[in-house]
Amino acid sequence: xxxxxIIACEIGFWVLLAAGLAFRYLLRxxxxxxxxxxxxxxxxxxxxxxxxxxxxxGAEPDWTHGLAALYIGYTVGHGHRTVKWLDGHAAHRxxxxxxxxxxxxxxxRARHETRVWLGTLTAAVVATALLQLxxxxxxxxxxxxxxxxxxxxxWRAAGIHGLIALTYWLWPxxxxxxxxxxxxxxxxxxxxxxx
Length: 195
Fold this sequence. Notes:
Blueprint: H1 2-26, H2 30-38, H3 40-56, H4 63-95, H5 106-138, H6 145-170, E1 181-182, E2 193-194
Antiparallel strand pairs: 1-2
């Protein structure tokens, strides 16, 4: 049941996102589009409530409950970035606005990758908190080993992502000769040239 709900939440996320962007840019109803986009966190609240209800009714804590915690953590850590990224692409394609890309070179790229990693770190913290609450809620150390293993999975993912982000600081990609990255490419939205 939990896996089906996770899949339904993921489908719901993309349906609400597509509908919100369609109302904002195709139908020129930005408030309705924003309202649809703001409904997305409700999906995670429903998933959290159903998972807690499932555990309360005596379900054996297993990998599905851990996956639900990681899914909610990922949505908290990266959901806003995903929506903002797709909103920028929709605004570019459907409204003619300039496309703001993340920086590709140097320390600006390293800072960008660090901000993305902070989203993964946030996801790990949220998932760990939810898993710990579930462990306390179940209250039986013999039944929560799968939940405990999901905590280490969350932190392994954050650690691997952190090492990848660190490589951008240790070995920053240099701007190719004759190529000038614009500040718009660097994520500021202004068109001045950066050398």
